[in-house]
Amino acid sequence: METLIATLVKDFEDGRMDRRQLIRSIAALALTAAPAAAQSPTASPAPWKTVKLDHISYAVSDYRRSAAFYSSLMGWEVVNDNGQNQATLKIGDIGEVIIRNARRPEAQSPAAAATQQAARPAVTGVINHVSWGISPWDTDGVRAELERRGLSPRADMVGTDFKSWHVLDPDGWDLQISNQVK
What is the DSSP letter of 134? Predict the structure, then answer.
């Protein structure tokens, strides 16, 4: 599966697919792998079900430009803009997207620059993490379940209402699992 994902990411970086196609393709791979994982003798069903997309965080080269783009194109409502480096956009009743400035990537090698499509700007944005809201929520129980599965949860508890744990998926992507909010 790692080879397939690497190929998809390469196609995205080379401009052969857009961000939406990349995400759909990776999701399809995950769904096809799920039945095999569910049949694994070491796999057991989770004690919860995913019930909400809390937010997706994008690290981009210019948060204002990206926020304006998604707000205009997708009709997402800007609900918070700190005026410096981050805006939060509401996706109707589905969830939110946090768009924030990312560091500029290191300069490309001459060989990489030569192979990049001339009409396409360099890819500078990546998905930082995806947060899924689950129910029922039990802070200690969720942590214990993540640890039981060999993951190393990192707490992200904001205020009295929002609770979450971050873990890394098999490819190193940051996955945030949170209590159901809103």
Answer: E
Taking only the tens place, the pLDDT of each residue in 9-48 is 877 788 877 888 788 778 776 766 655 554 555 678 888 8
For β-strands 174-179 and 126-135, DSSP reports them as parallel
* Helix ranges, 51-121 (H): 63-74, 110-115
Closest CA to 88 of 106, 120, 63: 63
Per residue in 125-164, is it b (16+ CB within 10 Å) or e — as a string?
Answer: beebbbbbbbeebeeeebbebbeeeebebeeeeeeeeebb
CA 53 – CA 134 distance, rounded (Å):
9
99-132 pLDDT tens trace: 998 865 454 455 555 554 455 577 677 778 878 7
